[in-house]
């Protein structure tokens, strides 16, 4: 048996960290996945269609999940400032509080304690995803910090409130607090000007 096959067998068993039959703290696994994604996505990807893409479901099923999370007070929707027809989904303080008991935290802790370091594991996973994307003609969400469209905004002595970054894809300001969030419009740059 190859190491690659063994790795897949082990990965399938690790999936129990995010896939389960019964509800945990009142949410099904897909609802946890949705809440988790919306807490980690930037404002351009906190949409029902990006959520459907992340969870791997239809837009209609994602909308039902959003409705259930809204009914429980974990999510709220608002219209986008740039396009009033677009909806942005925000995790509420109640949702943030629930995420403190996210069942996937055990997996995060296990990865953080890897002897060879979490960075190596993350980089290997990113390489795997990029290969899968190329074969399936799809695109995964990744972190704004490493995106080819991110550029540092020129500092302006006239205004201290000027944003530190801009997105050349959306032609919008990006706050420093947003560059470590997920985006589905991400395009990887070859050399990273921004450190880990
Ligand atoms: S710079 Fe890239 S990752 Fe960041 S918001 Fe723009 S498209 Fe998304």
Automatic annotation (TrEMBL):
InterPro entries: HTH_MarR-typ, MarR/SlyA-like, Tscrpt_reg_MarR-type_CS, WH-like_DNA-bd_sf, WH_DNA-bd_sf. SMART domains: HTH_MARR (SM00347). The keyword Signal does not apply. The keyword Glycoprotein does not apply. Residues 1-134 form the HTH marR-type domain. Keywords: DNA-binding, Transcription, Transcription regulation. It holds the Pfam family MarR_2. This is MarR family transcriptional regulator.
